[in-house]
């Protein structure tokens, strides 16, 4: 066993862990990062990048077909092999040489293997050859191990070896028939991607489609999927799954109906990757989500920092916001607060302070890259009501904007603004429509900055753009 001492040890070298380490070394401390798979993590190889690459070709083709002149230039359908090859390039062909090179250039030490907390400020790393390295952290250990796909307890499901988000993102061929269990972000994005590539897709959405978003979001996405030839079965539930000898899959529903498919994708949620990282060594339950304080230190059931405050958790594992950009946002706060505490500098832990992730609770932006796209930030109308806010909800038909008609023929979309009437600031904003992803940051700034409605009147949108929706919503709200 070899011993190494660093200021900070990070378990998990995905985007979150990499950003923590970067802020640590930029702050003048040393950092070691532990990774058991590919440096770059889920986002780089099995989530954000490859999935959006799968989706982009279909999106570009649909956009061309919605504009006269461009439509006539399109003479064929998607080239599935070319789409998959492009996807492979964005996943770096599942090789992490570039990411490893970046760690080296940044002065961050990479230790490959399974990292486990073994005691006070110590992490043991078991390599592929069985050799064990013991790492000691002078100041902090950060858990940034992310999350994995959740598999429900359906008879025969695990034995049938279904696709999870990983297999769906990395598949080498297009299944003729694809059944998807789930109605959330992964389910709808993959339904969009694979149907555009030629799969006959059936979505089994027990709890509805995008049920955590504003209701109109799911309605638009369902309509578009069905127009693309997919079948969306809201309320349908799988009772059992069987992988046949010929490799196909049979799904039996609770009402007795049977569906046959070439592949089955399960996309019902996520579970934390904390099963084998040594949480029991610090009195925590293995496999559970980690609870953190405002500065992202792991706390116990009584609310006290574990071990006196040396253990932190950033990204999916703390369940605050399961999206990569929020994990990276947390990582910046974690890296900076560890440096501040190590150097005895003031900790800025008031709301919106440098060392806290306030936006996780108030202003999380998210884009669902379906057709049409769904972009949102902050609270839905229902969530704002549940929070006890006195709100006013303003809706507007996005297709009625001059810029929308120019953008695409037959443009369909919707916008909603949720206003806190007591403070006259926006607390929630949702857009549904083609290419609305690029509009959401303006709403994010308005929500984070708590820009008064009266001041927003002076933020004049350029004409003719889809951003004119801001003026129309304000006009509907009134002065």
From TrEMBL:
Residues 364-470 form the Pyridine nucleotide-disulphide oxidoreductase dimerisation domain. The keyword Transport does not apply. Pfam families: Pyr_redox_2, Pyr_redox_dim. SUPFAM superfamilies: FAD/NAD(P)-binding domain, FAD/NAD-linked reductases, dimerisation (C-terminal) domain. The keyword Secreted does not apply. It comes from the Bacteria. Residues 6-320 form the FAD/NAD(P)-binding domain. Its cofactor is FAD. Keywords: FAD, Flavoprotein, NAD. Belongs to the class-I pyridine nucleotide-disulfide oxidoreductase family. This is NAD(P)/FAD-dependent oxidoreductase. It comes from Paractinoplanes hotanensis.
């Amino acid at each position: 066993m070899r011993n190494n001492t660093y200021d900070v040890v990070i378990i998990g070298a995905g985007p979150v862990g990499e950003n923590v380490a970067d802020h640590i070394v930029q702050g003048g401390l040393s950092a070691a990062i532990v990774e058991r798979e590919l440096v770059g993590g889920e986002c780089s190889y099995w989530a954000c990048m490859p999935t959006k690459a799968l989706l982009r070709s279909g999106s570009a083709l649909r956009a061309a077909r919605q504009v006269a002149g461009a439509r006539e230039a399109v003479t064929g359908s998607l080239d599935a092999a070319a789409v998959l090859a492009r996807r492979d390039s964005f996943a770096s062909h599942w090789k992490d040489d570039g990411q490893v090179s970046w760690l080296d250039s940044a002065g961050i030490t990479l230790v490959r293997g399974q990292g486990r907390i073994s005691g006070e400020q110590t992490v043991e790393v078991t390599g592929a050859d069985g050799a064990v390295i013991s790492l000691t952290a002078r100041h902090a250990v950060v858990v940034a191990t992310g999350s994995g796909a959740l598999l429900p307890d359906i008879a025969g499901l695990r034995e049938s070896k279904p696709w999870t988000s990983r297999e769906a993102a990395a598949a080498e061929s297009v299944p003729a028939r694809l059944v998807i269990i789930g109605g959330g972000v992964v389910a709808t994005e993959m339904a969009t991607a694979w149907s555009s590539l030629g799969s006959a897709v059936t979505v089994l959405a027990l709890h509805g489609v995008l049920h955590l978003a504003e209701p109109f979001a799911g309605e638009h996405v369902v309509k578009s999927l069905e127009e693309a030839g997919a079948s969306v079965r809201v309320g349908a539930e799988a009772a059992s799954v069987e992988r046949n000898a010929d490799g196909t899959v049979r799904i039996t529903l609770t009402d007795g109906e049977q569906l046959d498919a070439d592949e089955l994708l399960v996309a019902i949620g996520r579970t934390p990757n904390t099963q084998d990282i040594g949480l029991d060594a610090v009195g925590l339950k293995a496999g559970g989500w980690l609870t953190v304080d405002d500065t992202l230190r792991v706390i116990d059931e009584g609310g006290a920092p574990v071990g006196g405050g040396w253990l932190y958790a950033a990204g999916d594992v703390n369940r605050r916001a399961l999206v990569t950009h929020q994990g990276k946002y947390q990582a910046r706060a974690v890296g900076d607060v560890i440096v501040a505490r190590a150097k005895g500098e003031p900790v800025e832990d008031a709301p919106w302070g440098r060392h806290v992730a306030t936006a996780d609770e108030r202003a999380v932006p998210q884009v669902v890259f379906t057709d049409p796209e769904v972009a949102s930030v902050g609270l839905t109308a229902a969530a704002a009501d549940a929070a006890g806010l006195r709100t006013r909800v303003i809706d507007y038909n996005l297709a009625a904007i001059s810029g929308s008609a120019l953008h695409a023929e037959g443009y369909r979309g919707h916008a909603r603004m949720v206003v806190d009437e007591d403070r006259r600031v926006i607390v929630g904003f949702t857009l549904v429509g083609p290419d609305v992803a690029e509009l959401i940051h303006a709403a994010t700034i308005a929500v984070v900055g708590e820009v008064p409605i009266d001041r927003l009147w002076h933020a004049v949108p350029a004409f003719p753009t889809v951003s004119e929706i801001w003026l129309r919503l304000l006009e509907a709200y009134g002065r």
